[in-house]
Design goal:
- The structure is a single chain.
- This protein is 43% helix and 25% strand.
- The N and C termini lie far apart (44 Å).
- The protein is α+β, with helices and mostly antiparallel strands.
- A hairpin with a 5-residue loop joins strand 3 and strand 4.
- Strands 1, 2, 3, 4, 5 and 6 form a six-stranded antiparallel beta sheet that branches. Strands 7-9-8 form a three-stranded antiparallel beta sheet.
- The relative contact order is 0.13.
- It has two domains: 128 residues, Jelly Rolls; 77 residues, Winged helix-like DNA-binding domain superfamily/Winged helix DNA-binding domain (Arc Repressor Mutant, subunit A), CATH 1.10.10.
- The chain is built from nine helices and nine strands.
- The model has no long low-confidence stretch (mean pLDDT 87).
- GO terms for molecular function: DNA binding; DNA-binding transcription factor activity.
- Pfam families: cNMP_binding, HTH_Crp_2.
- Keywords: DNA-binding, Receptor, Transcription, Transcription regulation.
- This is cAMP receptor protein.
- It comes from mine drainage metagenome.
Length: 227
């Protein structure tokens, strides 16, 4: 991957887009560009936090692995999103791993630089609070999804969430592999396949690879709690 203009990249993130040139140049001077290959860990669960991570290109998954080696994906990170905030404020080990699902480009802003900005810039501090609030809201929604009693309801709600973020609500692209979706929904890949086949059979969706056409969004909403 070609090297990026770190100063320009930082300015594209909402957290830093209010900084002046001097502040951005200082931040860029100490930030580190990371290239991560698909399947490579950015950090492992239990590692000590190094700073704030900003995803420029690619995709990552955050997750945990049980003592029985069962993986649970807790979040998918896309370009323009940050991760690792937990480690900035809790003086302990990171509670999850971060692993690239495709070749990715990341900026690492050192912990001491983030704390310096938060101490000196109220606007950055407010935006950090907003970022953490959005993450908390998403986590609560994820927990709500897992309370749905059937796998097909969970998958329906997942599709609706992706649809709400898409420019074409009735024609979406699954952002990750199906086994990752199954992990997010706390079901097996085989169960997810049955859900897809069932929704396709009753005429609510049409699937072609990772492309999903929602053919009856009203009935799909009736399955989830987006009604």
């Amino acid at each position: 991957m070609a090297k990026v203009d770190i100063k320009k990249a930082l300015a594209q993130f909402a957290l830093f887009n209010g900084l002046d040139n001097v502040q951005l140049e200082l931040l860029a001077k100490y930030s580190q560009e990371l290239s991560v290959s698909r399947g490579q860990h950015v950090f492992s669960r239990g590692d000590t936090a190094r700073g704030l991570y900003l995803l420029l290109k690619g995709q990552l998954k955050l997750g945990v692995t049980s003592i029985l080696s069962v993986e649970k994906v807790v979040s998918i990170i896309g370009p323009g999103e940050s991760f690792g905030e937990t480690g900035l404020f809790l003086d302990n080990q990171l509670p999850f791993y971060a692993k690239a699902t495709m070749n990715s480009k990341i900026l690492l802003v050192p912990e001491y630089m983030v704390h310096s900005l938060l101490d000196s810039n109220a606007n950055v501090a407010r935006k950090m609070q907003e970022t953490l609030s959005v993450s908390l809201h998403q986590m609560i929604h994820d927990i709500e999804t897992l309370t749905l009693p059937t796998a097909i309801q969970r998958f329906a709600e997942y599709l609706l969430r992706i649809s709400n973020k898409s420019t074409k609500a009735d024609n979406i692209i699954l952002p990750v592999r199906k086994e990752t979706i199954a992990s997010i929904l706390n079901i097996t890949p085989e169960t997810l396949s049955r859900c897809i086949n069932k929704l396709n059979k009753i005429g609510l969706i049409e699937v072609n690879g990772n492309h999903v056409a929602i053919t009856d969004i009203v009935k799909l909403r009736e399955l989830g709690f987006d009604n």
